[in-house]
Amino acid sequence: MTIATNQELDRFLASVQQLTPQDFVAIGDQARTTGTAARTAARKAAKLSASDRSALDKRVRDAFVPMHERLLADPSADLHDAIMDTITAALGVVQRAKLSAHQYEALVGPFHAVGADVPPRESDPA
Questions:
Q1: Could you tell me if residue 32 is inside a domain?
Q2: Count of domains observed in the chain
Q3: Do 59 and 13 meet the contact criterion of CB atoms below 8 Å apart?
Q4: Beta-carbon neighbour count of residue 93 at 10 Å?
Q5: Residue 105 sits in which domain range?
Q6: pLDDT in tens, 8-53
Q7: What's the Cα-to-Cα distance from 7 to each of 4, 50, 55, 104, rounded to whole Å?
Q8: Cα–Cα dist 24/103, whole Å
């Protein structure tokens, strides 16, 4: 798996860039509803090598550069939480072949709920 050339990750991150600060608040709320235990277990199942994790973090943080001002201008949204929630979902996108349907939903469900372009779990993670 190559983080740098993952087309479905590209589409997901492009859709995340279109989300509003209120969408990120809803994502955070939904993530809390899903629960820490379910999300932690899913993240462990989707573990990446250190180099791939670093590349994924960079891809997500780079995607947020054009959104910084918009998120910082809205006091209801937290930039750090938005980035961390997106990293969690991106991990699910790139590792979905290793995840059960329940684990995948625990990671990406909050983004699916606000209309982000989340690939189906069964699709080829190329």
A1: yes
A2: 1
A3: yes
A4: 27
A5: 8-113
A6: 999 999 999 999 999 999 999 999 999 999 999 999 999 999 999 9
A7: 9, 21, 15, 18
A8: 21
